[in-house]
Design a protein that fits this description.
By secondary structure, the chain is an alpha/beta fold. Helix content is 47%, strand content 15%. It is globular and about 50 Å long.
Length: 250
């Protein structure tokens, strides 16, 4: 299936590394104009250069997605630069995991509230474009209990539920809302690449839990993202798609 997104305008909140980077590059390769934001300038600039190589319209900005006002400013600037918004991808994570104030604050402020705030800020622009899509990046952690990362699992579960509510609320505006729940995804500089050396026992345990015998790649999540946000997925809304190589089955 060839997905052509020529002329579409896509905002990827948290788009400089890993899954977000691959999603942004996937949209650019399909012809869409892309805006990305992140906290770190170096990774943002590197990914921006990769997007620009596709010859599409590009916007990027440093943005702390835990900051309510910064989100509103970023979304408005992205819409102005791209000439509107057709698709919003909420990808950022605070990676809060511990069952304490710090862990919960990270997850609630970035994984959950940044999604709420960016969606609310982008909705008027997506509606003006005639409709479009919002995609939230959750996790398979949201489907099960976790003694190791309880706060992370809880906020990802909330994101899955909120995706369904968003889909219901935004259907009259012709905006589809879906989510992807990635399994364990490995890429250079990512959490699982670090744990491979820092905590090899955990890495091997996770590896054994995946029926396909390997961790996933960011590009595999991006492929699903393009489908869900394109006309190929025009009758799909309120769903969360696990992209995990069967990890949930173990």
């Amino acid at each position: 299936m060839h997905i052509n997104l020529q002329g579409k305008r896509v905002v990827v909140a948290g788009g400089s590394r890993g899954i977000g980077r691959s999603i942004a590059l996937g949209f650019a390769a399909a012809g869409a104009g892309v805006s990305i934001c992140a906290r770190g300038r170096a990774a943002l600039d590197a990914t921006s250069a990769e997007i620009a190589a596709h010859g599409v319209k590009l916007h990027s900005a440093v943005c702390d997605l835990a900051d309510k006002d910064a989100i509103a400013t970023y979304i408005a600037a992205a819409a102005d630069s791209l000439g509107g918004i057709d698709v919003l991808v909420n990808n950022a994570s605070g990676f809060g995991s511990s069952d304490d104030e710090t862990g919960w604050a990270k997850g609630l402020s970035v994984d959950l509230m940044a999604t709420v705030r960016a969606s609310q800020a982008a909705t008027p622009f997506i509606e003006q474009s005639g409709g479009g899509a919002i995609l939230n990046i959750s996790s398979i952690s949201g489907y099960r209990a976790s003694a190791r990362t309880p706060s992370y699992a809880a906020v990802k579960a909330a994101l899955i539920n909120y995706t369904m509510s968003q889909a219901l609320m935004l259907a009259p505006k012709k905006i589809r809302v879906n989510a992807i729940a990635p399994g364990s995804i490995e890429f250079p500089g990512g959490i699982w690449a670090e744990r491979k050396t820092a905590n090899p026992q955990l890495y091997q345990a996770v590896l054994r839990s995946i029926p396909w015998g390997r961790l996933g790649r960011p590009e595999e999540v991006a492929n699903a993202a393009l489908f869900l946000c394109s006309d190929a997925g025009s009758w799909v809304t309120g769903q969360t798609l696990a992209v995990d190589g069967g990890q949930l089955l173990g």
